Every structure is written in C-alpha cells, then in structure tokens.
Inverse folding.
C-alpha cells in the first residue's frame, strides 16, 4: 500500500465520530475469526402498503465474509439489502451494522429517532453498488470517485486524487478519468461506481443486482472487479442472479422466497443437500426440472 | 408641426429622462430577480424535506401569490403597509413585490427541477455518507439546474417587462417616466415608441443570454 493510501486509511479510521468497534481497521477485518458480526439483522419485517416484502428475517454477516442473496424477483432480497443501508425503513425489527443500530429504535417504550447526520456517519462506512449505477452525470469519472472523500471526509484534492486514479486503474479505467458517465458503457459505468464506493474505504460493500442492467457481454468485466474485491477480503453482501458467480465467490449463499430466508449454507453443501425446493430450482434449474418430471 | 417633428427637436431631453427611468427598471428587475431566485430555491429545498408544516405554509404562500394579480400585491405592499405605519419607498416596494411574487413562481420551477432528478441520485449520495443538505448541494441542485435554467431565464425576460407595473406605485422606472412625459408634452406616439425601443434594447440581450444558457444547460452531461 502506498504512503498515500496509508495516510488516507489513518485519516479515515482515526475519525472518532465513526465509532466502529474499537481498534478495528480495514486491514484487521481480513481474517478476524472471532470478530463480532459486521451486520446483524434481527426479526426484520417490511411491508409496502400492507403488502409484506420481508417477513421476520434474521441474518448475520461476519467481517470478511461474502454472502450472496439469491431468489426470484419479489422474494425480498433487494428489500433486505436496502434495509441494511436504511434506504428502506423497516416496518419492525432491527439492523445493526458494525455495532451501531441503524434507524429509529424503541427503548423502554420511547422512540429514539436517528438523526440524518448519524445515519450519514454509518453510511460513510458502507459502500453500495446499484443496479442502475447511479453515477453523477454532471461529474467526470474521476470527479465521481473524489466527491465523497472531498465533501464527506473533507480531504484535500491533492490527497485524494492519486488514490482515486489508483482506484480507476484497479477497475481498468485509468484512461477514462476525464469521461462523463454518458460517454461510458454500462459496464464501465458500473466499474466507476464500484471505484466511487471504494474511495470511501468502506468496511462493507452492498451489491444490488450490480450486473442486471448490463448487456450480457459487459457482465464479465464487472464480475471480475467484484471477484478481485472478494479476493482482497472485502466483506460483501451481494444480491445477484448470476448463480455461477455466487457459487464461485460466496462463502455462503442465502436463498430467499416470499420475504423469508428458506435456505442457506456453503454453495457446495446447498447444491448437494438443498433443504428447500427453491434452492435447487435457482442453482440447478435443469436438475430440479428433471426431478419434478421424474416424480 | 406634427408631434414627430416636435419630438425630434426635444429628443435629447426626452431620451435622457427615459434612459434614467430605464436605469431604475434595470435596478428593480435585477434585485427582484435575485430575491425571487433566492426565495424560490430556498422554499423548494425546504419543500423537499419530509416535514409537513413548512410544506403546508409554503403551499399557501404559493397559492396566494399565484391567485392574485401582481398589481394588487404592489398596492397591498405600498398602501396596505402604510396604513399600519410601515412606509416603504416605491422602489423597495417594487423590488419586494416582484421578488415575493416571483419567489412563488420560482418555488414551483425549482421544485420541478429537483423532482426531475432520479431518486437513485440521492440514494447514491446518501450512501457516500452525505447528509440531505450535502446531497442537495453537490448532487441534486447541479442536476436540477439543467431543468431550472431555461424557465428561470424566461422569467427574467418577462420580469423586465412586468416591472412596468411598478409605475402604479410611482416607482420612477421607464413606463413611469414615459407617462409623465406624455402628460407634460402630449407627444404620446413618439414617447411610447421610444419607450418600447428601449425595452427591446434591454430585453433582446437578455433573451439572447437566456438562449445561450439554455443551450449550455442542455449540452452533454445528460443522465445516462
């Protein structure tokens, strides 16, 4: 790691107000065997206009773990991810990220409202990659990456620019620093969006169907970047329809159906020993169809 | 002697009087435009927050301003306030009147601009750890401006002409001078033609500027 990135890490992790578990830095996260879970979701319910989307979901994700959320459309996987980021307000239940409660909560019958500022602090440590990329169209690729560090972490431009360029290089787009999003392909935009999240030195990355809006030939380049991140030990919660990718990269696959978690486990175990019909239907559709026609 | 030849001989006096009125027109237009823009942007931002009471108050303000003629609003400010002991000079009354009237109009313009930005943009900003205000400042407003600038510029051009109404509260602007000169000299034709020419001379560069800004705002950098 360059001296620059080191200074950046120090600066970021030295921020008192972030209040991550004491002593924890981005580097320590890798291989921390007995660390407290980075994400704890307990008894989470969410309904949209009376229509339940999540029904009593509980899930923990350890630091350094890669968890893939799979399930058909409407199974609640994206809603679960968005509740972790508090882009959706849970109807009931609890979300804790890195030891901090996310959102309003009720203690002794009194409602404690989470302030905009506190929520922003927690989100500073969470990177999120969206299906529709959501790059800022009025900024170049490089400016997109630098905006967070400049305005949220209040870093100086000359402090962050080399690191931002390094990140662009890492996602294979060093030559596109000055390009506006509209001049980039979908795959390139998504890679810039990943770099934009990484510039904040997140403890955790959330991927919301990061490749679903891409032309088929552009999917691989984005998955490659995600694979690389996983190899570096980033904690990742990934909503995806790319089953081969999930099997390959995830430490654990979580299967959702009708707003609940119906199955979960290591990819190989799940395929060998599925506990729910959805599991095999999603991971091995052909075998599941054969089973059905045989019976 | 026709009124046109008579007015030709009086040209220097007429022109200098009208031009000093034009200066006041520019002054009123400029300051009420600034005031209206500040009010419009500020209220649209407040409206974008979930709190319901401020939103209701803003709605009432917008509806009252849109539902009454500017002329009436100027009279209320000038004569109405005087009755309760607040005596304002005509020019401040005009600036204030056009400012709060335009503010209501521009609140809607800025609101539409902010709403035109895709919700994913604020979500992306929030996930970088931005507060609502930072997201507005660095992500939403810059993009909203693309939608806001054309109607904002058109509003400015319209405002320049609309300030003629300020003559009703005796603000010494272009139309006020024109009418005074007509009552003194009875040269209604030439004087109003001269006044119209001065209005065009002021509004033409403004509308060219508006076109230029519109073009610049629409060029490139569209949301993908």
């Amino acid at each position: 790691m360059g001296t620059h990135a080191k200074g950046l890490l120090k600066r970021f992790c030295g921020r008192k107000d972030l209040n991550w578990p004491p002593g924890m830095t981005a580097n320590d996260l890798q291989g921390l065997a007995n660390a407290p879970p980075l994400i704890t979701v307990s008894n989470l319910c969410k309904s949209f206009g009376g229509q339940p989307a999540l029904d009593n979901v509980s899930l923990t994700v350890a630091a350094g773990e890669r968890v893939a959320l799979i399930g058909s459309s409407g199974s609640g996987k994206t809603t679960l991810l968005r509740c972790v980021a508090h882009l959706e307000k849970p109807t009931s239940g609890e979300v804790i990220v890195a030891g901090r409660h996310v959102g309003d909560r009720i203690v002794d019958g009194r409602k404690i409202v989470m302030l905009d500022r506190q929520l922003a602090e927690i989100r500073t440590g969470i990177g999120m990659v969206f299906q529709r990329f959501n790059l800022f169209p009025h900024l170049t690729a490089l400016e997109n990456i630098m905006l967070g560090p400049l305005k949220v972490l209040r870093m100086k431009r000359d402090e962050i620019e080399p690191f931002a360029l390094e990140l662009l290089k890492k996602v294979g787009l060093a030559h596109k620093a000055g390009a506006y999003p509209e001049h980039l392909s979908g795959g390139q935009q998504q890679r810039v969006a990943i770099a934009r999240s990484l510039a904040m030195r997140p403890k955790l990355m959330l991927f919301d169907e990061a490749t679903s809006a891409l032309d088929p030939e552009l999917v691989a380049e984005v998955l490659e970047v995600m694979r690389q991140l996983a190899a570096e030990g980033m904690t990742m919660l990934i909503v995806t329809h790319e089953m081969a990718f999930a099997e390959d990269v995830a430490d654990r696959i979580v299967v959702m159906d009708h707003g609940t978690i119906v199955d979960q486990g290591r990819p190989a175990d799940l395929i060998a020993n599925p506990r729910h019909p959805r599991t095999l239907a999603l991971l091995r559709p052909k075998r599941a169809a054969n089973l059905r026609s045989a019976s | 002697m026709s009124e046109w030849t008579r007015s030709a001989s009086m040209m220097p006096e007429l022109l200098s009087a009208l031009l000093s009125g034009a200066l006041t027109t520019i002054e009123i237009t400029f300051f009420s435009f600034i005031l209206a823009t500040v009010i419009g942007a500020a209220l649209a931002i407040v409206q974008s927050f979930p709190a319901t009471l401020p939103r209701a108050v803003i709605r009432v303000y917008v509806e009252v301003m849109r539902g009454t003629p500017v002329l009436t609003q100027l009279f209320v400010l000038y004569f109405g306030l005087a009755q309760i002991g607040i005596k304002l000079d005509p020019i401040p009354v005009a600036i204030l009147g056009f400012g709060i009237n335009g503010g209501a109009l521009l609140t809607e313009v800025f609101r539409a601009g902010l709403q035109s930005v895709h919700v994913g943009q604020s979500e992306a900003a929030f996930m970088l750890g931005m507060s609502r205000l930072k997201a507005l400042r660095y992500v939403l407003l810059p993009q909203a401006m693309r939608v806001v600038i054309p109607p904002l510029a058109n509003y400015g051009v319209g405002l320049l002409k609309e300030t003629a109404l300020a003559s009703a509260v005796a603000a010494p602007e272009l139309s006020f001078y024109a009418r005074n000169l007509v009552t003194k000299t009875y040269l209604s034709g030439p004087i109003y033609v001269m006044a119209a020419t001065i209005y065009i001379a002021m509004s033409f560069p403004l509308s060219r500027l508006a076109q230029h800004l519109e073009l610049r705002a629409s060029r490139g950098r569209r949301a993908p």
Q: What stands out?
A: Residues 216-231 of chain A form the longest helix (16 residues). The two ends of chain A are 57 Å apart (CA to CA). Residues 70 and 116 of chain A are 31 Å apart (CA to CA).
